[in-house]
Amino acid sequence: MAFAGKWQTEAQEGYDAFCKLLGIPDEVIEKGRDYKLITEVTQDGDNFSWTQIYPTNAKVTNTFTIGKECDMETIGGKKFKATVHMEGGKLSVTFPNYHHTSEISGGKLIETSKAGSVVLKRTSKNI
């Protein structure tokens, strides 16, 4: 149940380069740069509900079970099928344009998204 809770971004690295690589418009990148993303996670064993709340209250919720294919959605509204894996306490999933991992380290939620050599690392505190 380590992931369960409400998390708020406190630091991020590689934001601009990652967003540009994904083709996110400059004005959207600007709005989101200093936004404190809220992530709400509920966990019941291997079953998760993962919600991220973005600027302008845009919200994406993905519900998944570890090791089972599920329907997911990106913030841009793209729907895809994916399987979330748990490896060494890290959640791992491949989105259409990047690979994403999430882990709890030192009481913080650490999310890493990697597209080729470009990496976005977001650190969030429990609120």
Tell me what the structure shows.
The structure is a single chain. This protein is mainly beta and 127 residues long. The chain contains two helices and eleven strands; from the N terminus they run E-H-H-E-E-E-E-E-E-E-E-E-E. The longest helix is centred in the first third of the chain and has 8 residues, at 26-33. The mean pLDDT is 91.
Q: Which sheet architecture does the biggest sheet show? A: 9 strands, antiparallel
The first-to-last residue Cα distance is 16 Å
SS element count, helices: 2
Order of helices and strands: EHHEEEEEEEEEE
C-alpha geometry: globular
Low-pLDDT segments, ≥5 res? none
Mean pLDDT: 91
In total, how many beta strands?
11
Q: Percent range for helical residues? A: 10-25%
Compile the SSE list and pairings.
Layout lengths: L4 E9 L1 H7 L4 H8 L4 E7 L2 E7 L5 E7 L3 E5 L5 E5 L1 E3 L2 E5 L4 E7 L2 E8 L2 E9 L1
Antiparallel strand pairs: 1-2, 1-11, 2-3, 3-4, 5-6, 7-8, 8-9, 9-10, 10-11
Keywords:
two-stranded antiparallel sheet, 2 helices, lipid binding, 127 residues, mainly beta, transport, single chain, 9-stranded antiparallel sheet, ILBP
Brief overview, please?
12% of the residues lie in helices and 57% in strands. By secondary structure, the protein is mainly beta.
